Task: structure prediction
Amino acid sequence: MHYFIAEIIGSALLILLGNGVVANTILNKTKGHGGGWIVITFGWAMAVFIGVVSAAAYSGAHLNPAVTIALAVAGKFAWNLVPAYFLAQFIGSALGAFLVWLSYRDHFNETEDPITKLACFSTIPAIRKPMQNLITEIIGTFTLVSGVLYMSVPQVGLGALDALPVAFLVLGIGLSLGGPTGYAINPTRDLAPRVMHALLPMTNKGSSDWGYAWVPIVGPFIGAIFAAMTSVLLLG
Result:
């Protein structure tokens, strides 16, 4: 499989299952309504696991522009491939968001609160203080990318289970650091679904909150670059 297609598929699965668990938990009249934060964080961890397993052999399963830019800064990825990876991740994330909407279309229409609907696409801070929210996203992404960069690959391969460490890392970030902003830690994970929220038809949809959209884009990039620079200083 071509790396471009692999990044699209992996990113689509990531958002389909990640935003899907949010929709199942918070939209009205779903079987999973009221599942809570623990269900959401476990669902996102499984989304990462499945996305990584699907794409790892073909593209390295970045599925996240912050990971791509960090690997390039650290000298572990070719700069000329960065734009193609970004584009594939955006397309895949938009496709995943569309499939969530398609799966839960009736439930979106049954849910009156526009903020709840937006939360099934993009992150919303618990306390809206953009600079503090930015710091939270920087810390969360620094943790993610540092873990990815420092994680040792087992000498004896585990097959699909090689993706488990990354899934556990995302689970830990969600449980420990996800409360303030909803832990985007991935610029495209937030931006592409936000674009789809703006485009897709829903009753009482409300704003796509573009005034906040820069935070889950800028924060992850800053955190990723810091993590890459730190790894270069420590590991050479």
In short: Residues 3-26 form the longest helix (24 residues). The chain has one domain: 3-235. The CA atoms of residues 19 and 120 lie 6 Å apart. The radius of gyration is 17 Å.
